[in-house]
Amino acid sequence: MTLFTDFGLAQPILKALAAEGYEKPTPIQAQTIPYALEGRDVCGIAQTGTGKTAAFALPILHRLDAAPRARIRRSCRVLVLSPTRELSGQIADSFRAYGRNLKLSTSVVFGGVTIGKQERELAPGVDILVATPGRLLDLVDRKALSLRDVEILVLDEADQMLDLGFIHALKRIVTLLPKERQSLFFSATMPKTIATLADAFLRDPAKVAVTPVATTAERVEQKVMFVATGRKQALLEIVLRDEAIDRVLVFTRTKHGADKVVRSLDKAGIAAAAIHGNKSQPQRERALAAFRNGSCRVLVATDIAARGIDVEGVSHVINYDLPNVPESYVHRIGRTARAGADGLAISFCNDEERAYLKDIEKLTRMQVPVAPLPEGFSAGPVGQEPQEPARQPQQQRGRPAPHARGHQGHGQPREADPNAERGPKRRRRRGGQKAAVAASPSNGGQRQASNPPAQAPRQRPQAQPGRAQGRRDGAQVAWLEKAPR
């Protein structure tokens, strides 16, 4: 297939494609559309920005137009599930654009907005419903929607569904769907967990993979800069002052980190906006609108928005924090170099994130080139070997070592318990008492310390504890007795 006209799509759809300027299908479209038109289940794997939406939207529109049916109240013929609000809105917009010449209705529902309006919109029934899993189940529970008449199910960005914790919602949704249906899965990656979930949704699917699993966009130039955590903000400000950066997405690991970066950029005179899960829907829409129209060239986002941002002309992606899930790196940098354009992805990496970088290079099967820092810029203490290994076998990645939080880890030298000092002081502020840790019969009535000082500690006058005080002291003694020596 070399042209959209070769697929035998309905003339109104071809007319809409011509208005959009589409003539030749992308590889994922060329391989998927014939299977979907036959009614087969499809499991498609492709990078973001390769045209997955049109790959399932075009054959769906053709099938609905070829077999018209009266709408059933509080139901839909096609259900498209997506992980984020932004992606849901973009999918719905694509259906409306490709089906502009068809008499088909498209609705989109997601959380963060009033549910009453969505209930009224679904009351007469719709042909195509695009939804996030959480809000979809809310509508089902309120008897505002039934899924028993769904003819076609689509899961877009299926692996991101699992990353965001939608596994239980998806398992419940599949029980509400009719067994006789067509199911289409599309994702940028296909981990084993998704393959297992696909078995519950798909029947003898046609598998389409236009690129190797978890590879990055070929037209994205990638670089990494090694910099201390405390110097990342200063480096970001220097990089963003480059006039070659036209429109840039900055990714952070946390929502708090995204807001902090935006505040610091505003102080430096660089206009920026943040988009993440804590933002209301109007706030997210305003931020995206400003990013699209160019009034704000810097958008700071978390991974939840990595696949929901489809903005043309993103020249750069900056990983302010490297993701601890290597697949997220693929989705992040896929926001640039879209529709045949070139793009640049720059990652800031501190000592703690070196392990994440290795995981990314292992997944993408390539080594990210190291870029030089700006002239005269100090990266801070990067590259120094820590006193102890950065990651212990029993530690979870990205969490500080136990001794750094004042707790005892196995095999680590024990420091004095800070609560043994702070506890009595807090009690003096509350009740005015100078309470002391009670003695234990097992230690001969002597006060225990996790790391005894060279000199004996100053003895404090014993106070007769009350009932509540005795319980607190007894619990502290029990903890001291059980503490490893």
Automatic annotation (TrEMBL):
Signal sequence, renumbered to the chain: none
Region (Disordered) location: 372-485
Biased composition (Low complexity): 383-399, 446-468
One function term, GO molecular function aspect: ATP binding
DEAD-box RNA helicase Q domain mapped to chain residues: 2-30
Superkingdom: Bacteria
Domain Helicase C-terminal: 231-379
Listed Basic and acidic residues bias regions: 412-423
GO cellular component: cytosol
GO biological process: response to temperature stimulus; ribosome assembly
SUPFAM superfamilies noted in UniProt: P-loop containing nucleoside triphosphate hydrolases
Catalytic activity: ATP + H2O = ADP + phosphate + H(+)
Occurrences of domain Helicase ATP-binding (ranges): 33-208
Keywords assigned by UniProt, alphabetized: ATP-binding, Cytoplasm, Helicase, Hydrolase, Nucleotide-binding
InterPro entries: DEAD/DEAH_box_helicase_dom, DEAD/DEAH_RhlB, DEAD_box_RNA_helicase, Helicase_ATP-bd, Helicase_C-like, P-loop_NTPase, RNA_helicase_DEAD_Q_motif
Keyword Methyltransferase: no
Enzyme Commission numbers on file: 3.6.4.13
Chain location of the short sequence motif Q motif per the record: 2-30
Similarity remark: Belongs to the DEAD box helicase family.
PANTHER family, per the entry: ATP-DEPENDENT RNA HELICASE RHLE (PTHR47959:SF13), ATP-DEPENDENT RNA HELICASE RHLE-RELATED (PTHR47959)
Protein name as annotated: DEAD-box ATP-dependent RNA helicase RhpA
Biological source species: Microvirga thermotolerans
